[in-house]
Amino acid sequence: MQRHTLLATMPLLSGVLLTATLFSNVTTAQTLNSKDIQSLVDSAVKPLMAEYGIPGAVIGITIEGKQYFYQYGVSSKTTGQSVTEHTLFEIGSISKTFTATLANYAQIEGKLSLTDMASDYVPALKGSHFDEISLINLATHTAGDLPMQVPDKVTNNAELMDYLKHWQPSFAPGTHRNYANPSIGLLGMIAAQSLNKTFEQALEQTLFPQLGMTSSYIQVPSSKMADYAQGYNKQDIPVRVNPGVLADEAYGVKTTATDLLHFVEANMQMHPLAKPLQTALDETHTGYFDVGMMTQDMIWEHYSYPIDLDKILMGHTQEVVFGSTPVKPIVPPLAPQQNVWINKTGSTGGFAAYAAFIPAQKLGIVLLSNKNYPVPPRVTVGYQILTGIEKLQK
């Protein structure tokens, strides 16, 4: 894959909007002007950073295999170190897409079946509601109304098992979508154990190397700490993600724009991978539930494309993220589609991330920043940039 890297600098609180006519030049994919892309990205990202006081951000774009990176601001206010495409960011719940990939990989390796019930792999949950909750339910937020976070009182796996065994759902599995870290976290635990590894080992020793992601971690090694951005919460207090029960499986990946964009490309079949791994990636795009405004895949969410921004934003409202949404099972499940917008957001206390791609066009984007800010602006910026690139290509 070709890579084209551009450095963009800006004052952190600059609210200057570029007034260039971004779409005045008629171009093709082959003659796309990098300066036009730079202007497009600047005009979307600079106001965003100014509005939310974001110290540093990096945008990675892939256009038919050609990569572009745009870096803004600093990875730490203390050191003043500039952000680069090699800066490590926490990606929050985008980590869940790796968990789903690992579960598919384990199934292909014959270690589990996603149609089995969760309690088939966790004896401590026998006799609980997990006798009726499949691994697919865990991967699609349809296990029932589990809480979004593991309760604070749960501090180890024994306490987790006790909590889950006594949990009483309000909805039958497969009837409602409730976004929940315990759900995907349990799937990650099961998938890793089926491979006789810890979750950290399964990603760092199996998935990441096979994917060609050389700067991605659950636990950032000491030799890479200088590359690890400092996160900032909404009060501008320096924070990084805390360890916790199922944290690794649900939101624990730290990676670079370079690696995450490579992962997006792999999801669009743009890298030579061993067949089991490519199949595992592809099957995370299977549509299992109709949520109304979008289709729930294995963690990934997809929308028929082309689509208006307001329709994508409907899938990112507070009600959808934090509430219970009735769903309809898709029978048989919908095979991976090409003319779709596939996306996932991710956040931790001090970081915000977004990944989106359109397989039919081999067009994708990743947005990483070291401050947590609302989801809709992230989605909006990603949409503005990708659809802007489409206009530049015409």
From TrEMBL:
Residues 41-384 form the Beta-lactamase-related domain. It catalyses: a beta-lactam + H2O = a substituted beta-amino acid. InterPro entries: AmpC, AmpC-like, Beta-lactam-related, Beta-lactam/transpept-like, Beta-lactam_class-C_AS. Residues 1-29 form the signal peptide. It is an enzyme of class 3 (hydrolase). Belongs to the class-C beta-lactamase family. This is Beta-lactamase. One of its GO terms (molecular function) is beta-lactamase activity. Its EC number is 3.5.2.6. SUPFAM superfamilies: beta-lactamase/transpeptidase-like. It comes from the Bacteria. PANTHER family: BETA-LACTAMASE-RELATED, D-ALANYL-D-ALANINE-CARBOXYPEPTIDASE/ENDOPEPTIDASE AMPH. Keywords: Antibiotic resistance, Hydrolase, Signal.
